[in-house]
UniProtKB/TrEMBL annotation:
SUPFAM superfamilies: SGNH hydrolase. Residues 50-217 form the SGNH hydrolase-type esterase domain. The lineage of its organism: Bacteria, Bacillati, Actinomycetota, Actinomycetes, Streptosporangiales. It comes from Nonomuraea glycinis. This is SGNH hydrolase-type esterase domain-containing protein. Keywords: Signal. Pfam families: Lipase_GDSL_2. The keyword Repeat does not apply. InterPro entries: Ester_Hydrolysis_Enzymes, SGNH_hydro, SGNH_hydro_sf. Residues 1-25 form the signal peptide.
Length: 234
């Protein structure tokens, strides 16, 4: 496997038959030897699943396949499966009426286990208290690990392309605490500077969501961060 981990080849017995001839007035005794056919299914690229908000799934002129989650997977050569919706969070239901937990259950939990699950968000949870966000994040992590015990789980904190308000730091700190307690890597976008003088505009006119250039920058950052994590693999 390319990247950080190695998935075993899947060996599947396609046919195992023993056919024996019989004697009759019209045939002579015959025996067909046992046939054993084994086929190996070629190894595919690592699968990374995302649960996230509008930063993860794309917004405005940026479609899902150009959002930072897809950009990171493209750089790593991984196969992405992206769940979630704009306005959602660990507690925020957005316009779609579901939280990260509900998006995980509806869109991902029924699928075969991925190599990596990235839970990214918190931007929309700032109106909730840190303890409530902490409880919701803990529940989601526990459910994800119970569903896919061998998948690697990574948390990405709230994304703010510009200056973040004080309440965003409280949510960020609550999520970082959950990740530490659950022994899950925590990546903190709020520690980064996303736009430098003279560079292309990083946010859309709403001043919140990334442009294509902003998503490209986020994707490069995430791909680099994931490639440096000490995964053991299954």
């Amino acid at each position: 496997m390319r990247g950080l981990m190695h998935r075993p080849f899947i060996a599947q017995a396609v046919a195992l038959m023993a056919i024996y001839g019989t004697t009759s007035a019209c045939s002579t005794a015959a025996a067909t030897p046992e046939i054993a056919l084994q086929t190996s299914i070629p190894q595919g690229p690592p699968v990374v699943m995302f649960v996230g908000d509008s930063f993860t799934v794309g917004s405005g002129p940026v479609p899902r396949w150009r959002a930072y989650a897809s950009e990171a997977a493209r750089l790593l050569g991984w196969q992405p499966i992206i769940a979630g919706a704009g306005g959602t969070g660990y507690l925020s239901e957005g316009r779609v009426g579901r939280t990260f937990q509900q998006s995980f259950e509806a869109e991902l939990a029924w699928r075969p286990a991925p190599d990596v699950l990235v839970i990214s968000g918190g931007h929309n949870d700032c109106r909730w208290s840190a303890p409530k966000v902490r409880r919701a994040a803990t529940e989601l992590l526990r459910d994800a690990r119970a569903t896919w015990p061998r998948a690697e789980v990574v948390m990405v904190g709230p994304i703010w392309m510009g200056r973040a308000p004080a309440k965003a730091y409280r949510v960020r700190d609550a999520l970082a605490e959950v990740a530490e307690r659950q022994a899950v890597p925590f990546l903190d976008p709020m520690r980064e500077r996303w736009a430098a003088d003279g560079e292309a505009e990083m946010t859309l006119p709403d001043g919140v969501h990334p442009t294509h250039a902003g998503h490209a920058r986020l994707g490069t950052w995430l791909a680099g961060a994931l490639s440096r994590l000490p995964y053991q693999g299954p």
